[in-house]
Amino acid sequence: MELVSLFIGLTFVNNVVLSKFYAVCPLLGVSKKPKNALNMGYAVTFVIVIASIVTHILYHFVLVPLEITYLDLITFILVIASLVQFVEMFLKKTSPEIYKSMGVYLPLITTNCAVLGVALDNISANYNLIEATVAGLAVSVGFTIVIYLFATIRERLEIANVPESFKGTPIALITAGIMACALAGIAGLV
Amino acid sequence: MNKFDTFKKGLFIENPIFVLLLGLCSALAITTSLTNALGMGMAVICVLIMSNVIISLLRKIIPNEIRIPVFIVIIATLVKCVQMLMNAFTPALYESLGVFIPLIVVNCIILGRAESFASKNGVVDSLLDALGMGLGYTFAVLVISFFRELIGTGGLSLFNPFDASQVIFQVQLFGDYSVSLFTQPAGAFITLGCILAFIQCLKIRKERKAKKVEEK
After folding, report:
1. How far apart are CA A155 and CA A34, in angstroms?
2. Tens of pLDDT along A127-144?
3. pTM here?
4. Which of A53-57, B14-18, B154-158, B210-214 has maximum average pLDDT?
5. Is A19 in Cβ contact with B189 (below 8 Å)?
6. Which residue in A129, A134, B59, B148 is a FRET match for A167, CA 20 to 30 A apart?
7. Is A173 close to B193, i.e. CB distance below 8 A?
8. What is residue A22's DSSP assignment?
9. What mean pLDDT is reported for chain A?
10. CB under 8 Å to B114, separation ≥6 — which residues?
11. Assembly ipTM
12. For residue B39, which of B21, B24, B53, B26 has the smallest C-alpha distance?
């Protein structure tokens, strides 16, 4: 039951994109087409879930016993970078189309705040391995939902009559702001 | 391009946040108050200067294929140093910035400057570039936090980042009419959206003027 509330809490109530601003760059960059957004969501989900498991194990079974927790940032970022490299190679082999359509944003998953952010949050919240995995999954599901919704809204905005100075990024940011307002409405849920 | 231009371009023409749209995560998250924005700006300037200088010194040794992992490890080391220093000397700021200090590692500005500038240019140029970009970032987050704090709390305040009890200034202008939405995440998106729209508006106006001059 606690895991369920943790999941819902991180997916909707404290959605990382709209309440903590993790991963705003890909949100603005990849969200031009809903299909790309979904692919991005899948890739990020894979990376975040594996990264939160691996970083948890490394932190609690290597860094803490050896008392070198000050190396956490370097360890985590290396884990993330290699995972992203793996996803990149995998996509390049299996579906070159997706690989091409995601372009530079695929390697940029390394610098996606959500991945490192979740790993660090898991450590500071003192989650056990199962909780950390659920947290990773919840965050990435939340990210995928938001980026997909955002992409569909942006597709509609393309044909909308937006004032000239608000065209492009400004209106996208304001849309994100309104989405954040909507999510703030369920703040007391968990 | 002379030295001064290298420094100057980061401030306005290529402002990392308002024009290049890099590093938005931290810029949106920590702009709830002027003090936080100033602290974050200083942290980013420190990391950016050190990473740009180190990377430009090592640019001939680092093999091209693995340059990104090398850059990231250098940056992560520097960020960890800054994080530990801030924990020791600015505990209040460290508390309020929280996870966003370690997240400087994945701030696109730093890796972006390393990749696009420091790995191709000399030490002095890289230093100036870092200084310009860092100040541009600080300027941008200060502008965002100015509006957010003013509208969200109805006043402005600035504390000494090294000593939270030392108040530099604190004014309360319209406490009764403050819109607390602006201190919340939604307000950050809306504020930045409006600022970007304003910049775009200026740009459009400039283009129109240029066109008119041409027609004449």
Report:
1. 8
2. 888 889 999 999 999 999
3. 0.87
4. A53-57
5. no
6. B148
7. yes
8. T
9. 86
10. B51, B52, B55, B71, B74, B75
11. 0.84
12. B26
Q: Which of A189, A188, A186, A162 is nearest to A175 (CA)?
A: A162
Residue positions counted in chain B = 216
Each residue's pLDDT tens digit, B173-207: 777 777 878 888 888 899 999 999 998 898 889 88
Following DSSP, what letter does each residue of B31-42 receive, concatenated?
TTSHHHHHHHHH
Both structure tokens of A43 = 């890739």
Residue A82 in tokens: 């290699």
Cβ-nearest to B186 among A73, A112, A181: A181
Using alpha carbons, list the distances in angstroms from residue A181 to A150, A167, A178, B136, B159: 14, 21, 5, 29, 30
A170 and B194 in contact (C-beta within 8 Å)? yes
Per-domain residue ranges for chain B? 3-145
Mutate to test the interface with A, among B47, B95, B196, B202 (most CBs of A within 10 A): B196
Tokens of A189: 């849920």
Is the minimum CB–CB distance between B25 and chain A shorter than 8 Å? Answer: yes
List chain B residues with CB under 8 Å of A164: 200-201, 204
Q: Does B99 touch chain A (CB under 8 A)?
A: yes
